[in-house]
Specification:
Elements lengths: L4 E3 L8 E4 L1 H10 L7 E5 L4 E11 L3 E6 L3 E2 L6 E7 L5 H12 L3 E5 L10 H21 L7 E2 L5 H9 L3 E5 L5 E2 L10 E6 L7 H9 L3 E4 L7 H15 L5
Parallel strand pairs: 1-3, 7-8, 7-12, 8-9, 10-12, 10-13, 11-13
Antiparallel strand pairs: 2-5, 3-4, 4-5, 4-6
Helix pairs in contact: 2-3, 2-6, 4-5
EC number: 2.1.1.193
Family: Belongs to the RNA methyltransferase RsmE family.
Pfam families: Methyltrans_RNA, PUA_4
């Protein structure tokens, strides 16, 4: 089993580091790490260091011997999923599983047919939940580069994002081309749009087509909005060689 991952504000470049606060408490009281066990410390931005526990002090302090800062290169191609806001806690489910699978960026999208709307304080809390979910799922998946969770975008802004990508697609059950056969770039950004429970509205499809994103289907079945992005990410990471 790979070493557990803990998040630090700045990856230490000295010989020793004290992990305390919530991460230290989790390491000592939940993970129950002991001297001699391996850990990974990361800033979630691709910088990380491997370490070995020297001592556990109290309930929330871990003394770790570290061995230099390393940097994970940017992935190529990068995979972004534009996720329409689902109902209830299905948004966190989508973020969790996409993060575990390996997505690089998640863009909340306020689609026309979204039942859920992020406004004011409620919107800020929902975005914070998505970001916290990505962080925790990144740790669980042993990632050192966590996905970026953007501020929510309008359809117009999503169109601009699609126009600047190397490959853009809208997951849609009426797409004539399977995503599994699409020609994919070796670098740059792949951007996928996942619609809400009510589907992508015709005017949104037109706007995205004008930006260069056409409808593709995943397979013969229709997936829920909370699972489509994860399935598509897995397909793409396999096809682009990032999983090989």
């Amino acid at each position: 089993m790979t070493a557990p991952v803990f998040v630090v504000e700045q990856v230490p470049d000295g010989a020793e580091f004290v992990l305390d606060g919530p991460e230290g408490r989790h390491a000592v009281s939940v993970k129950r790490l002991r001297p001699g066990e391996d850990v990974v410390l990361t800033d979630g931005l691709g910088r990380w260091t491997a370490g070995v526990v020297r001592a556990a002090e109290g309930k929330d302090r871990l003394v770790v011997a570290v061995c230099g800062v390393r940097a994970e290169p940017e992935p190529a191609p990068r995979v972004t999923v534009v996720q329409a806001l689902p109902k209830g806690d299905r948004g966190e489910l989508a973020v969790e599983t996409m993060t575990e699978t390996g997505v690089d960026r998640i863009v909340p999208w306020t689609a026309a047919r979204c039942i859920t709307q992020w406004k004011g304080e409620r919107g800020a809390k929902s975005l914070a939940k998505w970001r916290a979910t990505a962080r925790e799922a990144g740790k669980q998946a042993r990632r050192v580069r966590f996905p970026v969770v953007d501020e929510p975008m309008t359809t117009h802004r999503v169109g601009e994002l699609l126009a600047g990508s190397a490959f853009a697609a809208v997951l849609h059950e009426e797409g004539s081309t399977p995503l599994a056969t699409a020609e994919l770039p070796a670098s740059g950004d792949i951007v996928l749009v996942v619609g809400p429970e009510g589907g992508v509205a015709p005017e949104e499809l037109d706007a995205f087509a004008a930006a260069g994103a056409h409808p593709y289907r995943l397979g013969p079945t229709v997936l829920r909005t909370s699972t489509a992005g994860t399935a598509a990410t897995a397909l793409l990471l396999g096809r682009t060689g990032r999983w090989s």
